[in-house]
Amino acid sequence: MQNKSVSDCPICASSEVRFARSLLNEYKLLACDKCGGRFCNPFAPPSAGFYAGASDMASKSRHSGPTSWYPVHPARESDVFAKGKQGRLLEVGCGNGAFAEFAASAGYEVTGLDVDATSIQIARSRNIPGARFDCVSLEEYSRLESGAGQFDVIAMFEVFEHLANPAATLRLVKNLLRDKGVLVGSLPNIDRPLMWQIHMDYEMPPYHLTYWTTKTWSEFLSQHFLFEVQRCEASIYYGYVSDILMERLKSRRLIHNIISRYIYPVEFKIEKHYTLGASFYFEAVSQRGGGSPAEIKPN
């Protein structure tokens, strides 16, 4: 891991950055007034094998076997994944293949990419008809596969916050999407209550490098990359604070039962009523042009 103190925004290369707040382990959160993004300082992208050896709850979940896609998720209600769809779908950061299996069941021909070999093995074990899973990054895949406009849909769930260069990734996405193709995915919602007071360690650096709200992400997609944002809402609910408390206090059975029985149902209803999901879901349609504007410089 290379810790690098930054003075310019690693998202758009602007020097219009300011201190926002302190994070764990002497990291700081900086805010860019130009692109609206927030990022950690030092800016410390993990090494290639970091996630393969990670022991956090999210990593354990990815390696737990061929689990099913979330039973309650905005994608399940989306017209993009209505039954009988035809076309090609690329999932970047496919994990153990749960979403890929769901997308294939809607009718898509699926290609999944992930840099974690264990996740790819689990995804392949699903034996999804016509699906392909490759243990490569999006950058490597783009070099190996020739031709632009290959995919009708590109999915990236909880991926962008881990990337050292989101702008460069979006340029690759634009190139691989057909005109009017759809980018779908999700990102952690830093506007949720108690985000900075109660969180999992894997939401801090070096796991997460950039931090977004529905507003800053929508503007980033539309203003800098000419996507037509059709949905961007904090609508992924699972009782976030309750989930963290139960994880931290799992050895205390009585408290665990109180949280799960009384606090979680109330929190879930509040999240849903006020659209305060732990993550936000987005769908954005690719327009011709965009992807390499002068103000977003390659790092």
Notes on the protein architecture:
The chain is an alpha/beta fold. Helix content is 28%, strand content 22%. The chain contains 8 helices and 11 strands. It has a 7-stranded mixed β-sheet, with helices on both faces. Strands 1-2-3-9 form a 4-stranded antiparallel β-sheet, with no helix packed on it. Helix 5 links the parallel strand 7 (151-157) and strand 8 (177-188). Helix 7 (240-248) packs antiparallel against helix 8 (253-273). The longest helix has 21 residues, at 253-273. It is globular, with a radius of gyration of 19 Å. The two termini are 18 Å apart.
Mean pLDDT: 88
Largest beta sheet, briefly?
7 strands, mixed
Q: Terminal Cα separation, in Å?
A: 18 Å
The gyration radius over C-alpha positions equals 19 Å
Low-pLDDT parts are 291-295
Helix content: 25-40%
Structural class: alpha/beta
Q: What best-fitting shape do the alpha-carbon axes yield? A: globular
The sequence of SSEs as H and E is: EEEHEHEHEHEHEEHEHHE
Beta-strand percentage range: 15-25%
Number of helices: 8
Task: Describe the strand arrangement of the main beta sheet, using strand numbers.
Answer: 6-5-4-7-8-11-10
Could you give the count of β-strands?
11
